[in-house]
Each structure stands twice: as C-alpha cells, then as structure tokens.
C-alpha cells in the first residue's frame, strides 16, 4: 500500500470515530497506523510492541481494548484464529485468506470468483449471514520450501 492510500484510510478512520463518538487520541491513531502498516494480520501483542515504541507508557490492556473497540465499530475485522491470540485485519473490504498451518501466517488473497460466491438459500434462511470469506489452508512458500529441503 502506498503512503497515499494510508492517508485515505486514516481520514476515513477519523470519520468513523467521529460518527461513533469515539475520541480520536494520538494513541488510537498510532495503533491504527501500525495496524494498516502491517500486512500480516497482527495480534494485539504485536501491535502493542510497536505502539510502545511511540508511547512507552501505553499498557497492553489499552492496546487490546482499543483493537476490540475498533472491531466493534467496524474499523477492523477479527480474523480466524484457532485458539491463539486474536488477530486483527484493517482491510474490511471483501477479501480472502491463505493461512499457513505451519507458521500461522495469514496472507490476503484477492479473487473475483471468491467475492462472487453465492451463499446457498437454505443457509441464508437458517442463519443471519454477516460476512463470507474463503480460507485456503496449506503451507506458505517459506514453509513449503523447508518441507522439500
Ligand atoms: Zn508458513
Ligand atoms: Zn486480510
């Protein structure tokens, strides 16, 4: 993502905060900035370590709560974790994931045919569907290479 895109994201972040009456603090902006800079669906502890460099007094709890609040107002999404710490995704537009079962990397995947997947009628009737995402699992390039070595 180019810097310009990040500026657009920050601007819409500010708008969303205002709309939801969430105070825009330098800490919150910094947390969001770190989030959109990371392309690897970071956990709260990863963001905490980055935010701590800018705000040495910030606590893990503050960072974690901030991320959960971002999730509540729809600025970030929570991505599938399997009993590990929650991971956050600043990209709320439709996209899909490749998840490495070895190193737990979550990599964005974009494909029109996945975006256009239709939810079957009986599932729509039974559940209230909020979101759909294709998750492909396997070994990432790095881990795949190690398997062959
Ligand atoms: Zn891997
Ligand atoms: Zn993603």
Topology of helices and strands:
Blueprint lengths: L2 H17 L6 H12 L6 H11 L5 H13 L4 E3 L7 E3 L6 E5 L5 E4 L2 H4 L5 H6 L8 E4 L2 H8 L1
Parallel strand pairs: 3-5
Antiparallel strand pairs: 1-2, 3-4
Helix pairs in contact: 1-2, 2-3, 3-4
Bound molecules: zinc ion (2 copies).
Q: Care to describe what's here?
A:
The protein is α+β, with helices and mostly antiparallel strands. The chain has 7 helices and 5 strands, in the order H-H-H-H-E-E-E-E-H-H-E-H. The strands form 2 sheets. Strands 4-3-5 form a 3-stranded mixed beta sheet, with no helix packed on it. The protein has a two-stranded antiparallel ribbon with strand order 1-2. The model has no long low-confidence stretch (mean pLDDT 90). The site of one zinc ion has 8 residues, from helix 7. The site of one zinc ion (ZN) has 6 residues, from loops.
Q: What structural keywords apply?
A:
alpha+beta; three-stranded mixed β-sheet; 48% helix; binds zinc ion
Strand content: 5-15%
Give the proportion of residues in helices. Answer: 40-55%
In whole angstroms, the N-to-C terminal distance is: 33 Å
Contiguous runs where pLDDT drops below 50 for at least 5 residues: none
Note the run of SSEs as H and E: HHHHEEEEHHEH
Strand element count: 5
Structural class: alpha+beta
Largest sheet: 3 strands, mixed
Helical stretch tally: 7
Using only C-alpha atoms, the radius of gyration works out to: 17 Å
**In one word, what is the shape?**
globular
Instruction: Order the strands across the largest sheet as they lie in space.
Output: 4-3-5
Bound molecule kinds, no repeats? zinc ion
Q: What value does the average pLDDT take? A: 90
């Amino acid at each position: 993502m180019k810097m310009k895109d990040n500026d657009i994201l920050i601007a819409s972040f500010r708008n969303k905060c205002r709309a939801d009456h969430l105070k825009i603090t330098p800490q919150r902006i910094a947390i969001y900035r770190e989030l959109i800079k990371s392309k690897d669906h970071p956990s709260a502890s990863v963001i905490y370590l980055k935010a701590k460099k800018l705000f040495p007094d910030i606590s893990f709890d503050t960072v974690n709560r901030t991320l959960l609040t971002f999730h509540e107002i729809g600025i970030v999404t929570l991505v599938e974790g399997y009993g590990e710490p929650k991971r956050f995704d600043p990209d709320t537009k439709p996209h899909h994931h490749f998840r490495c079962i070895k190193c737990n990397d979550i990599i964005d995947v974009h494909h029109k045919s996945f975006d256009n997947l239709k939810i079957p009628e009986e599932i729509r009737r039974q559940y209230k569907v909020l979101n759909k995402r294709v998750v492909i699992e396997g070994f990432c390039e790095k881990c795949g290479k190690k398997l062959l070595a």
